[in-house]
């Protein structure tokens, strides 16, 4: 692969990750080997250019921090929570104190779609906004990143996809992005990735590069206490699986391992507390930090094909929450790989349970225990209308639009194994 030119060649990938290691593609390390990285001497680089402000009350810094623009489009979901809990007004007022004018774009769905990206970009250009603020969950921040790109580039958003039906055009510029998460899960506040769905052809694909890292991210756990228990669990397991997949990925590095293991430890200990007592600020803060760490895993390692499979499901069934889909297939998914990187499975089990592990299945047992403590064990995909007969086309969809992640698995999966994971997880 070639390194980026001065215009920052956009890297397209499937789900939130890339064809090869992010480090190879972003920074041009063509001699970096993605296979068996855990057992060799690695060569890697680290560059997460986002300024992070973390902690309770840190949102107040938005009024005094030097910002990259003077007119912001605030991107929020179509739901009511940002207004109901006063978060939107708070952000508008803090930006006003900082002499920043604002407009609001409030159409984003839980699985964001291309149409809203294009609409938001058109408004952004018309109103001459010079920065984006993503406020809310991963869908709002991801959408802010995509709008930031299309506000500076012509054509259709899907022109810039290199997989699926995309045309593979290059992007050279994007507006700066400020990320203010009100959930803990995607890690999009510290990575460049954005995932958008094209409803015309059921393609859910993402991309990113250095220019789509947020300029600034403010992670304030006080903005997360209103998230209901079930969604807290869904978001938390998204983060957990980012970390666990990044730890077993064949492009893992010593840096990503540090982030991954600490995220896994914190989530195993504190996610059940946050689910069962959402007002517990200590637990919220620990989960929020774990989610950010898991985002750093996404910037230094990668997710694996579990995310490909999860996004293929929600591409056909957009009402299926991302975290719920991942939870539903996670036990069977990890069972498939337990004998392929046994030491890594045992290391994850030990960091979770704080006890010596003698078999890779200890990780599976700890994963199930954690799901039970968070009241999400045994989720039924059928509750979201998912039909078993659709699994074969999901296998094809996952490999066509998000096939790169399959190259980062501990070993290659056959189509029958992928289908089997779906079928064994179905309830």
Report on this structure:
By secondary structure, the chain is of the alpha/beta class. The chain contains 14 helices and nine strands. The chain has helices at residues 22-27, 81-84, 87-97, 114-126, 138-150, 229-248, 254-276, 281-300, 305-316, 322-337, 342-353, 361-373, 391-402, 415-425, and strands spanning 11-13, 51-54, 71-77, 101-108, 131-136, 177-181, 194-198, 203-208, 216-219. The strands form two sheets. It has a six-stranded parallel beta sheet with strand order 2-9-6-5-3-4, with helices on both faces. Helix 5 links the parallel strand 5 and strand 6. Helix 6 runs antiparallel to helix 7, helix 10 packs antiparallel against helix 12 and helix 13 packs across helix 14. The longest helix is centred in the middle third of the chain and has 23 residues, at 254-276.
Concise synopsis of the structure shown:
The chain has 427 residues and is of the alpha/beta class.
What secondary-structure arrangement, pairings included, does this model have?
Blueprint: E1 11-13, H1 22-27, E2 51-54, E3 71-77, H2 81-84, H3 87-97, E4 101-108, H4 114-126, E5 131-136, H5 138-150, E6 177-181, E7 194-198, E8 203-208, E9 216-219, H6 229-248, H7 254-276, H8 281-300, H9 305-316, H10 322-337, H11 342-353, H12 361-373, H13 391-402, H14 415-425
Parallel strand pairs: 2-9, 3-4, 3-5, 5-6, 6-9
Antiparallel strand pairs: 1-8, 7-8
Q: What level of helicity do the residues show? A: 40-55%
- How would you spell out the order of helices and strands? EHEEHHEHEHEEEEHHHHHHHHH
What about the largest sheet? 6 strands, parallel
**Tally of separate helices:** 14
The order of strands across the largest sheet is: 2-9-6-5-3-4
């Amino acid at each position: 692969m070639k390194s980026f030119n001065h215009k920052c060649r956009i890297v397209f990938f499937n789900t939130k990750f890339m064809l090869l290691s992010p480090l190879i593609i972003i920074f041009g390390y063509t001699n970096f080997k993605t296979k068996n990285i855990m057992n060799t001497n690695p060569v890697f680089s680290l560059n997460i250019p986002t300024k992070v402000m973390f902690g309770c009350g840190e949102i107040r810094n938005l009024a005094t921090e030097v910002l990259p623009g003077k007119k912001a489009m605030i991107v929020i979901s179509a739901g009511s929570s940002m207004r109901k809990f006063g978060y939107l007004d708070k952000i508008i007022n803090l930006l006003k104190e900082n002499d920043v004018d604002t407009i609001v774009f409030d159409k984003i769905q839980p699985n964001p779609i291309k149409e809203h990206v294009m609409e938001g970009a058109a408004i952004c250009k018309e109103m001459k906004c010079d920065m984006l603020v993503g406020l809310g969950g991963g869908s709002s921040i991801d959408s802010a990143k995509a709008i930031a790109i299309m506000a500076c580039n012509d054509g259709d958003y899907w022109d810039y996809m290199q997989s699926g039906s995309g045309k593979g055009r290059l992007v050279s510029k994007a507006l700066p992005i400020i990320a203010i998460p009100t959930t803990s899960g995607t890690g999009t506040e510290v990575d460049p990735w954005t995932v958008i769905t094209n409803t015309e052809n059921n393609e859910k694909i993402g991309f990113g590069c250095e220019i789509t890292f947020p300029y600034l991210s403010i992670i304030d756990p006080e903005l997360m206490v209103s998230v209901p228990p079930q969604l807290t669990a869904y978001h938390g397991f998204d983060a957990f699986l980012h970390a666990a997949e990044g730890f077993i990925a064949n492009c893992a590095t010593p840096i990503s391992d540090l982030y991954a293991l600490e995220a896994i430890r914190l989530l195993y200990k504190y996610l059940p507390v946050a689910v069962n007592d959402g007002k517990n600020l200590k637990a919220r803060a620990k989960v929020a930090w774990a989610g950010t760490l898991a985002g750093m895993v996404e910037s230094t390692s990668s997710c694996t094909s579990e995310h490909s499979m999860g996004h293929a499901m929600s591409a056909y069934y957009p009402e299926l929450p991302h975290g719920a889909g991942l939870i539903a297939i996670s036990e069977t998914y990890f069972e498939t790989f337990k004998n392929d990187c046994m030491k890594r499975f045992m290391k994850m089990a030990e960091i979770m349970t704080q006890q010596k592990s003698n078999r890779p299945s200890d990780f599976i047992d700890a994963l199930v225990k954690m799901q039970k403590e968070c009241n999400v064990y045994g989720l039924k995909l059928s509750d979201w209308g998912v039909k078993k007969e659709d699994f074969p086309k999901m296998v094809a969809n996952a490999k066509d639009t998000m096939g790169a992640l399959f190259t980062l698995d501990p070993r290659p999966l056959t189509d029958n194994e992928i289908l089997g994971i779906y079928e064994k997880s179905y309830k």
